[in-house]
Amino acid sequence: MVQNKVYIIGHMPPDLDSVASAISYAVFKNRIEKTDKYQPALAGEINKETEFALKKFVFEKPPVLENAKDQNVILVDHNEFSQSVHGIEQANLLEVLDHHKVDFKYGQPITFMVEPLGATCSIIAHMYFAQNIELSENLAGLMLSAILVDTVIAKLPTCTEKDKKIIEKLAELAGIKDWQALGKELFKVRSSVKALKAVEIIKSDFKNFNFKVGKIGIGQVETIDLGEFSERKEELLVELDKLREKDGYHSVLLLLTDIIKEGSLFLTSSEDQAKLEEALGAKIKRGRVYLDGIISRKKQVVPKFAKAFNK
Ligand SMILES: [Mn+2]
């Protein structure tokens, strides 16, 4: 059977949805086809919340596939080769199952399934339900965790009504009464900053934007408890100053986003604070300002900046 092996694999670097999709879809395919040839795999090392969820629901970490060349492969949770495991161009692709925008080309007809749900695990859960395949308590818990992380505990606009029904159903199957508490637990692990250096916190999710006034860098950390940063603010502000001077930024910001209260504390360093205040529509005091209702860098902050900084 080894030569028939089919690797089911998510994107690089792996997130929880990628890993839980690979595991749950392998179980599903093996069950449906009465085989054991489907094998979940990883495109790289897993993150903290993935490690946490695998432990909590008692799953072994799938093996890392170093190179997909000449292997049978099913892609889950992505469809762009640029996000895929090494050697994907020379793999034998069998299927794609995803919830992202499509940028895909392949020389042969294959099964290609994309549905705009909050997570790939939602699509897979729906397949289990539709075909009446039994879902174990632990697998339901793992898939639920993946959906909660991908949708930021059902708060993102990507979380559809269908996702919400699937969340409820998985929680019931997993015997989890309070899925919001599970979501908070996952984000607590995800945003745990105690072990990180200030510069690592800033750079963990950092993007550059070019405007007429110059380059602006914006980092973001999502947390369920801003208190975790209470003793780190000064240190983070010093790092932001250093980064701005060293790399010639107009401004550098770090958004500490409280996903429960739905607002962000902006830590800032700017060569023109008045202009930055005008862009944000708020006064900055000692490098910081809290803006209620701002949680999205892409949809809420960058458009404001484009307006103010491209004049
Ligand atoms: Mn996903």
- H and E string: EHEHEEEHHHHHEEHEEHEH
Distance between the termini: 64 Å
How many strand units?
Answer: 10
Number of domains: 2
Instruction: Give the radius of gyration.
Output: 21 Å
Which superfamily, in CATH terms, is the homologous superfamily of the largest domain?
A: inorganic pyrophosphatase (n-terminal core)
Q: Could you tell me the mean pLDDT?
A: 94
Strand content: 15-25%
DSSP helix count?
10
Question: How does the overall form come out from the CA principal axes?
Answer: globular
Helix content: 25-40%
What low-confidence regions span 5 or more consecutive residues with pLDDT below 50? none
Tell me the strand order in the biggest sheet: 2-1-3-4-5
Q: Mind summarizing the main beta sheet?
A: 5 strands, parallel
CATH topology of the largest domain: the name is inorganic pyrophosphatase (n-terminal core)
Which structural class is indicated by helix and strand composition? alpha/beta
Distinct small molecules = manganese (II) ion
